[in-house]
Amino acid sequence: MGGGAALSIPGEELLSWLAVEKGRSPNTLAAYRRDLVAYEAWLRSRGLLPAGGVDEPSVDEPSVDEPSVANVEEATVAQYVAYLRGVGLAPSSIARSMVSVRSLHKFLVQEGTTETDPTLDLKPLPVPQGLPKALSEDDVGSLLAAVTGGGPPQLRDRAVLELLYGTGMRISELTGLSLSDLAVEDQLVRVLGKGRKERMVPLGRYAREALAAWMGPGGRPLLVPAKWARRADSDALFLNLRGGRLTRQGAWGIVRLYGHRVGLDGRLSPHVLRHSCATHLLDHGADIRVVQELLGHASIATTQVYTKVSAERLRAAYESAHPRARAPGRARS
Question: Could you tell me the CATH number of the domain that includes residue 23?
Fold first, then answer.
């Protein structure tokens, strides 16, 4: 895998396998690389990897005394977890790092490089599950109303926000959309999610209207350059002001701009809009399996966290409104 810090040969082979066989995204591969570089640097500091940082290819299997990732033992991995705790990493960050470490050692077993996986019997770290902080429907309404004006940037920004909230798609999914992904007559958009899995997502009325305005004569056509800097940009649904494909950073900037305008600084991100979409769907009675399909969650367990959010919102609304819900003498807030 090109780019980033050097890894051992097994580490590079794992990244290649994840890219080619599993279709992992560049962002996911970059996260794996960061975790594995840190892990191997720690192993190297303990003399468990060659000082050069890259395992030399060998005709023979590494001997038990040879510094190699393949010869790491369970106690060593446990010490690494203790080290991560000691430097103050959050439990969620440690858990994410260990996903990469486990993947590396499992890969070595699958490839026949070693017979034992030192992470096999390590218990997964408990990670406190924070609740998504969804916006209220009024906050979302204020955000979407903050886009004023009829120029190409404003038409684009309105469509970006309407799609993020209306479909719950990830920001990387939105910026990856191409013109060919729109099925306007069927009121659907094709989304390429994690693991390059496709899903069809309905487009609501407001999203369709915003897209129609953006695709109309006063929107996207005015940002089309005389000559495309990159041929692939010609099919991009969303363009930046220079006529290239809108990047994740650019879309983030749009969300941040309008969040600032309506006083949502520190509370708003593209992922919060995704959370808000899911929470509001469940608030209004959507089936959890439908929400799972819309958001592209591989596991229903990922979607179930939103049912807890909705239940807590319902409880809070009940306690603030029902006269018999509060303790005697407690004033209504």
Answer: 1.10.150
Q: Which two tokens stand for residue 109?
A: 């077993």
Cα angle value 193/29/256 (rounded, 5°)? 60
The yes-or-no answer on residue 170 being catalytic is yes
Cα–Cα distance for residue pair 2/12, rounded to 1 Å: 9
> What domain range is 37 assigned to?
9-110
- The yes-or-no answer on residue 274 being catalytic is yes
231 annotated active-site: no
Domains in the chain, number: 2
DSSP H or E segment with residue 164: helix 152-167
| 170, 208, 245, 275: the active-site residue | 170
Same domain, 165 and 69: no
Distance, CA of 244 to CA of 237 (rounded, Å): 10
Of 71-75, 130-134, 296-300, the one with minimum mean pLDDT is 130-134
Question: What's 192's domain CATH number?
Answer: 1.10.443.10
Q: Which of 194, 256, 261, 326 is catalytic?
A: 194
Give the pLDDT band (50/70/90) at residue 64.
very low
**Does 158 qualify as catalytic in the annotation?**
no
> Catalytic annotation on 271?
yes
One domain for residues 163 and 106: no
Residues 2-11 have a mean pLDDT of 71
Indicate the residue type of 123. Answer: K
**Is residue 69 in some structural domain?**
yes
Catalytic site residue 194?
Answer: yes
List the catalytic residue out of 24, 220, 274, 275.
Answer: 274
Q: Average pLDDT, stretch 246-265?
A: 94
| pLDDT value of residue 61 | 45
User: What is the band of 306 on the pLDDT scale with cuts at 50, 70, 90?
Assistant: confident
Residue with the bigger pLDDT between 319 and 116: it is: 116
